[in-house]
Design a protein that fits this description.
With 141 residues, the protein is mostly helical. It has helices at residues 2-24, 51-58, 62-71, 83-92, 101-140; strands at residues 42-46, 78-82. Helix 1 crosses helix 3. It is elongated, with a radius of gyration of 25 Å. The mean pLDDT is 86.
Length: 141
């Protein structure tokens, strides 16, 4: 019985993705740039490159975002690209933080600062422990 529910969910998710790709590819089921047609690698692309912000704002991603598009009559601003063309577009437009050295540097600094803060907190806890330990030891001695 559980596998039937899983199969039903898989079929539903496939139908939702199928309908979105069908609409935004104008029924061709092909990448807009290179013509690649294997549906496993076709992706929805936000033409203006604001995909992450949009999905965070709507609090939906993946199949939930596809359902949102269907329920809102397929709004403009999207196209179908294959995974390769989509990643190339992200790289060329600096949409991927990994290709943005300045943003990458800032994130690394923030991580280092947070790590130092955690280390400092651990040291302070150890110092407090040893103060308490010394007080207790002096009482016994």
């Amino acid at each position: 019985m559980k596998s039937n529910m899983t199969d039903n969910v898989k079929r539903h998710r496939f139908r939702v993705k199928f309908n979105v790709i069908k609409h935004y590819s104008n029924g061709t089921f092909k990448c807009k740039k290179c013509g690649f047609s294997d549906m496993r690698a076709l992706q929805l692309d936000h033409i203006n490159g604001n995909g992450k912000k949009e999905t965070q704002l709507l609090k939906r991603s993946g199949n939930g975002f596809y359902s949102y598009l269907i329920n809102n009559n397929y709004p403009d601003g999207y196209q179908i690209l294959c995974a390769n063309c989509n990643w190339i577009k992200k790289y060329e437009n600096n949409e991927n933080h990994k290709s943005n050295p300045e943003l990458n540097y800032k994130r690394r600094l923030i991580r280092e600062i947070l790590n130092k803060k955690n280390e400092l907190e651990k040291v302070e806890k150890l110092q407090e422990f040893f103060k308490q330990y010394n007080k207790e030891y002096e009482k016994i001695s």
